[in-house]
Write a structure and sequence with these properties.
The chain is an alpha+beta fold. It is 38% helix and 31% strand. Helix 1 packs across helix 5.
């Protein structure tokens, strides 16, 4: 029995020595394994840093749009609404303010009537060609949204050589500024360059319901845009008229008492990102310290094992 146990111990130690002698790089391989384990701990934290920075940059490029609504009783800001008409050969017959969506029956349609609106006529050169002279009729738009104020206008075109008849118009937000401006021509050129234009056709009553959208830019400036909904009904003309005679009817009213404000909000908070990165880097340092201690511990254990194995093998030898 004793001889068998000694023989078994001798065989086990011999196998250890053979493994050490045959594989002199075991110690280095052990260190590499420890390094690999440390890398498996560090790499996910590095990926998290990369993902955090990428998400932050993406949020900077694509801010979230914030939309808010402000209820008003009068549309005076930023300076009363103006309507610029480009009637061409058409003539303004009447212009009146009415309330509560009520328009009284027409009296003598096609004949000059009362013009109870604040109007201004202006000539200026086309801002896009700088050659063509344009004639604009500027009218103050409705204000009192609570009373459902509307502006009703009637135009008359005696004759035209075109197949279709229409009058262009544009909406702008600063009629008072236009009235007070010493350079009204330049003012209208800027308006035409900044705002969209629309049309309404002859032989119909076009009802325009407006809404105002303000957009706050990144530099703190504010732009104004008009949106509109239109409904068109046919005008039953019962007059005795020449074939080329044409009447235009248009109504302007505010859709609702709400001014829409649009603003881009950057959801990426740099302080949150800095705090998160600090936490990640702290975890990285701890993982690196742990990996360093693990390597030292493994090297120490392996050297101790080798030191213990050599005397025993020398004694047996």
């Amino acid at each position: 029995m004793l001889r068998t146990e000694v023989s078994a111990s001798y065989q086990e130690l011999s196998e250890d020595v053979e493994r050490v002698s045959e594989n002199p790089t075991d110690e280095r391989e052990g260190e590499m394994e420890v390094h690999e384990d440390a890398s498996s701990v560090i790499l996910p934290a590095v990926f998290l840093v990369y993902q955090t920075i990428s998400d932050f940059r993406e949020k900077l490029k694509h801010p979230v749009m914030s939309v808010s609504y402000k209820e008003v009783s009068l549309y005076d800001a930023p300076g009363k609404t103006g309507i610029a008409f480009y009637p061409g050969k058409a003539r303004l017959l009447s212009c009146k303010h009415h309330y509560y969506d009520h328009i009284p029956p027409l009296i003598n349609p096609g004949q000059p009537g009362d013009i109870e609106c604040t109007t201004q006529r202006i000539n200026y050169t086309d801002p896009f060609t700088n050659q063509t002279m344009k004639y604009a009729l500027v009218v103050q738009g409705p204000r009192d949204v609570k009373k459902k104020e509307l502006v009703f206008l009637q135009f008359h075109l005696n004759g035209t050589d075109q197949d279709f008849s229409a009058i262009d118009y544009l909406l702008f937000s600063s009629f008072q500024e236009f009235i007070n401006s010493p350079e009204k021509a330049e003012f209208m050129k800027d308006c035409e360059s900044s705002y969209s234009s629309w049309k309404f056709s002859g032989g119909f009553r076009t009802w325009v319901k407006m809404s105002l959208v303000k957009t706050k830019e990144e530099d703190g400036s504010e732009t104004v845009e008009f949106k509109q909904e239109t409904s068109v009904v046919n005008y039953i003309d019962q007059r005795t008229k020449p074939r080329s005679d044409q009447l235009f009817f248009v109504v302007f009213e505010w859709k609702d008492p709400f001014i829409q404000t649009v603003q881009d909000i950057i959801t990426a908070n740099p302080w949150n990102m800095i705090a998160l990165l600090c936490g990640i880097f702290l975890a990285l340092f701890k993982a690196a310290d742990f990996a360093k201690l693990s390597v030292k511990w493994m090297i120490k254990i392996r050297k101790r094992h080798l030191r213990r194995s050599r005397p025993v093998m020398n004694h047996i030898s």
